[in-house]
Amino acid sequence: MERTIKLISFIVVLTFSVQYGYSQITGKVSTDAGKVKYRANTIIYIEKAVGIFKPPPKNPHMDQKNLTFVPRVLPIVAGTTVDFVNSDDVLHNVFCPDACAKFDLGKYPKGVVKSHKYEKVGCQSVVLCNVHPEMEAYVIVLQNSYYAVTDADGNFKISNVPPGNYVLMVWNEKLQAPNQNISVPASGTLSVNFTLSK
Ligand SMILES: [Cu+2]
After folding, report:
1. Given this model, what pLDDT does residue 15 score?
2. The CATH number of 54-142 is which of 2.60.40.420, 3.40.30.10, 1.10.10.10, 3.40.50.150?
3. Are 67 and 134 in contact (CB under 8 A)?
């Protein structure tokens, strides 16, 4: 009897691990030597995946600190509300002139948080401050949560991706790279590299 239970448990665990297998996608974004700074802050994302992707329970923040938006690049799932925080001793404004996410939160002081909900999948929008024209950031609205932002060396990792065929896309504020058709296996790691150019 005990043996049978063990065997059944084993089969159940095996079935679940096959059915609910996930993989990770890792890789590197490279550029010409003169454009090394653009390796960072590149978004690698799956264009479309099956399923319903809800916003995270906690709103992501975009801070305004030392006259800079942090992070500079923020990928989100459609329907996510972003909280814009002012952490500086000066007044900041937050606005977006792009049609797909047009808003203006006005000017506000340190400690105040104002928010905007991004609805439109595919919206690649800029965030600006009308007090400091040099301030600039980007919010990229995606269909699903399988995305990553590259580090300073261009490395990225997308975890917990269900197996399947996808189009892997690239967004960068200045440069471009062709999309890649990928087949994510039921387990393990798929390595994908991109070369960014004009
Ligand atoms: Cu500002």
Report:
1. 47
2. 2.60.40.420
3. yes
pTM equals: 0.88
Q: Annotate 86-100 with DSSP letters as a single string.
A: E-SSS-EEEEE--GG
Running along the chain, 198 residues long, what does each successive block of 10 average in pLDDT?
58 49 96 94 98 96 98 98 98 97 98 98 98 98 98 97 97 97 96 96
Ligand 1 center from residue 169 Cα (angstroms)? 31
Asked if the 21-46+154-198 domain carries CATH number 2.60.40.1120, the reply is yes
- What's the CA-to-centroid distance between 88 and ligand 1, angstroms? 9
As given in the structure block, the two tokens for residue 193 are: 């590299």
Q: How far is the CA of 66 from the centre of ligand 1 (A)?
A: 9
Q: For residue 64, how far is its CA from the centre of ligand 1 (angstroms)? A: 7
